[in-house]
Amino acid sequence: MKQLLSLLFVSAILTGCGNETKTTEYYSQHLEEAKTVHSECEKSSATPNENCKNARKALLENSFDQFTNGDGISY
After folding, report:
1. How far apart are CA 24 and CA 17, in angstroms?
2. Mean pLDDT calculated for residue range 35-46
3. pTM for this prediction
């Protein structure tokens, strides 16, 4: 029983040590961090987590905004 309680305690502590999930809005305001997170996610073979998805979405939205506002590709 003591081992089970110890295991549950350690599991609870480790669960709380995970990375904080940041929103798309956060990454939109911190594009360099979004690029870093996206790059790390691309290198990983694991299933993308919420931070990966939110960073990618922020980068895509930023690219679209630059394109539609004339700050992007010129012909």
Report:
1. 22
2. 92
3. 0.64
In this structure, what token pair is assigned to residue 71? 């700050």
Q: How far apart are the first and last CA of the chain?
A: 71
CB-based contact 15:48 (threshold 8 Å): no
**Going by C-beta distance under 8 Å and a sequence separation of 6 or more, which residues neighbour residue 24?**
54, 57, 58, 61
> Are residues 52 and 41 in contact, defined by beta-carbon separation less than 8 angstroms?
yes
Please, are residues 37 and 27 in contact by the beta-carbon 8 Å criterion? yes
The label of the residue with tokens 């919420």 reads 50
Taking the CA atoms of residue 68, residue 73, residue 74 and residue 75 in that order, the dihedral angle to the nearest 10 degrees is -110
* Strand (E) or helix (H) holding 54: helix 50-68
CA dihedral angle for residue 32, residue 33, residue 37, residue 38, rounded to 10 degrees: -30
